[in-house]
Write a structure and sequence with these properties.
With 149 residues, the chain is mainly alpha-helical. It has a single domain, classed as Up-down Bundle (Methane Monooxygenase Hydroxylase, Chain G, domain 1). It is built from three helices and two strands; from the N terminus they run αααββ. The chain starts with 13 loop residues before the first helix and ends in a 13-residue tail after the last strand.
């Protein structure tokens, strides 16, 4: 068997790769919309499918790494279609990342605001021999949210 021949059953399913990449781009676009609307909790529902698709695409990548000659078997129209869907995917991925960073920053500002309010409300009154002299803050205060963005 020469290097250019595939093992029985070894084939690159390029149309599946194109479809999976397009669906992953669609899921990321849904995430972008949810992030834009600050509906972060609804993103979790998309994770299972994203993991499934990512694993399937990774399997295709490993197949190509193991059998690089399979790339030569891709029809030119499929190559063109894959390039187009990858370009769309990369654009959406960049927007997704940007929105994630914005949501993370907003989350940080919310936590800081909550900490400030709690700190203001947790001042203890201090009295001296002449009566009330003001507020004394407690030593430390730590607030975090239990969800990560």
């Amino acid at each position: 068997m020469s290097m250019q021949q595939s093992q029985p059953g070894t084939q690159l399913k390029i149309k599946d790769t194109i479809t999976l990449t397009a669906r992953l781009a669609q899921l990321l676009a849904e995430e972008v919309d949810l992030l834009g609307d600050m509906k972060v909790s609804r993103i979790e529902a998309l994770q299972q499918e994203k993991i499934f698709i990512t694993n399937a695409l990774e399997a295709q990548r490993k197949l190509v790494d193991k059998h690089p000659y399979l790339l030569e078997t891709i029809p030119s129209q499929d190559k063109h279609d894959l390039e187009e869907v990858v370009n769309v995917f990369n654009d959406i991925l960049q927007e997704n990342h940007r929105k994630l960073m914005v949501a993370k920053e907003i989350n940080h500002k919310i936590v800081q605001a909550i900490k400030a309010v709690v700190k203001d409300q947790s001042m203890s009154r201090v009295y001296d021999g002449k009566g009330y002299t003001g507020n004394q803050p407690y030593v430390t205060l730590s607030v975090t949210l239990n969800k990560k963005v």
